[in-house]
Amino acid sequence: MLLSTTSGQAHARPTGASQAAIEVIDLVKRYKSNKEPSVKGISFEVQPGEFFAFLGPNGAGKTTTISILTTTLTKTSGTVRIAGYDLDSQAQQVRENVGIIFQHPSLDLKLTAEENIRFHACLYGMYVYRPSFKLMPREYRERVEELAGIVGLFDALFKPVGKLSGGMQRKLEIIRSLIHTPAVLFLDEPTSGLDAVARRNLWDYINQVRCDFKTTVFLTTHYIDEAEGASTVCLIDKGKIAMCCPPEHMKRQMGAATLEDAYVEYLQREEAHEQFGVNQATECTDVATPAGSLTEADRHQIALLAVKQLESETLALLEGGF
């Protein structure tokens, strides 16, 4: 559900009294070197167990937002709560309740897969470090073996990470991010650099983890088809929330058959709006729009403006002696 604001952007409206997994209210991030804020007062909620896709073109504010939510970047203003913990006053509790798979792998290639997991678990304060897997508490050993079995990494647990394929390393990062049973799993371009088979397999494992552990998933990706099964799609553009609704609503709003088509349609309409002043719809509704790229009225307006622009450019060339 959307809440209209005086700034013209769409905000996700709080939907109930239950504690949200992620709550963002009027979040602003302004860099000193930029005239305009990178994130301009955005608000949204993610419910426990939800699959939430956060989409947008390059430079829209996705990376800035996810960096703030995962405590790796400070915000300028606004309120953020993760798993009920305030980002400002309870940052450590926030970190204890989130798992993160970054776009670029952050594994130690010289260590074994299990050693990477062990160091991570001990850094989170879950266990006192022991020099071998066998000396770690039974609870830790059973958890590692359980997760390794889910993602298909059991046979590679004690191999050096440098000898594992890209897909296997991604599976290891899933285990590492889930070892402390986080309430929220942040996936920042999780399939970047993987081939089609590895991508599909990885998503099979992520969906299984969601099902088995009821984990909330927050996804950013340029592979829009990966967000097709999301509970909610939130589209950010130029630092503002443009849409925030179920994928089916967004597809109806854009008159598209797939989420990727709807996303491309939005970008095309936004480009037309910037170039020719065609109005851009910013709210997801249940009312279907005519199928196709743009409405006939939009096409007519674009054509008239394009003709005027062409006439102006032609006149300028003639006057210049072309």
Question: What is the fold's blueprint, element by element?
Answer:
Elements: E1 2-4, E2 10-12, E3 22-29, E4 39-46, E5 51-55, H1 62-69, E6 77-82, E7 85-86, H2 91-96, E8 98-101, H3 113-123, H4 138-151, H5 166-178, E9 184-188, H6 196-213, E10 216-220, E11 232-237, E12 240-245, H7 247-254, H8 259-276, H9 296-319
Helix pairs in contact: 3-5, 4-5, 5-6, 7-8
Overview of this structure, please?
The chain is an alpha/beta fold and about 325 residues long. The chain has helices at about 60-70, 90-95, 115-125, 140-150, 165-180, 195-215, 245-255, 260-275, 295-320; strands spanning about 1-5, 10, 20-30, 40-45, 50-55, 75-80, 85, 100, 185-190, 215-220, 230-235, 240-245. It has a 6-stranded mixed β-sheet with strand order 8-9-10-5-11-12, with helices on both faces. A 4-stranded antiparallel β-sheet has the order 4-3-6-7. The chain has a two-stranded antiparallel ribbon with strand order 1-2. A hairpin with a 2-residue loop joins strand 6 (about 75-80) and strand 7 (about 85). The radius of gyration is 23 Å and the shape is elongated. Residues about 1-20 and about 285-295 have low confidence and may be disordered.
